[in-house]
Specification:
The protein has a five-stranded antiparallel sheet with strand order 1-2-5-4-3. It is extended, with a radius of gyration of 18 Å. The chain has two helices and five strands, in the order αββαβββ. The chain starts with 9 loop residues before the first helix and ends with a strand. It is of the alpha+beta class.
């Protein structure tokens, strides 16, 4: 799925600026795009996402669905066995992973 989307990410802005500078006189490099990956720590919790959400995939007309996992990311007997919640979005037809939210 390829589409133009407003994505205010600092890392992507830096890449696009560098690409524009390289190509100012001669088109030497083309953009490979981005998968829209971001993460942040807010209120003591880490939030991260990459790709598209289920709503975005469905809006694009893709036969998508999601699977979810809630639990420890390590066995509970290990130190720092923090809880994690994951939603994985995929295309039902091709089984291609479209996005993930943690």
């Amino acid at each position: 799925m390829q589409t133009d989307v407003y994505m205010p990410l600092a890392s992507q802005a830096v890449r696009q600026g560098a690409l524009a500078g390289i190509n100012v006189l001669d088109k030497r490099l083309r953009s490979i795009g981005t998968q829209s990956t971001t993460g942040m720590l807010i209120f003591g919790r880490t939030l991260a996402c990459s790709g598209v959400t289920l709503a975005m995939a469905l809006d694009a007309g893709i036969n998508a669905t999601k699977v979810a996992y809630k639990g420890s990311y390590r066995p509970d007997f290990m130190p720092n066995a923090h809880k994690v919640e994951i939603e994985l979005v995929y295309d039902r037809n091709s089984r291609k992973v479209l996005g993930v939210q943690l």
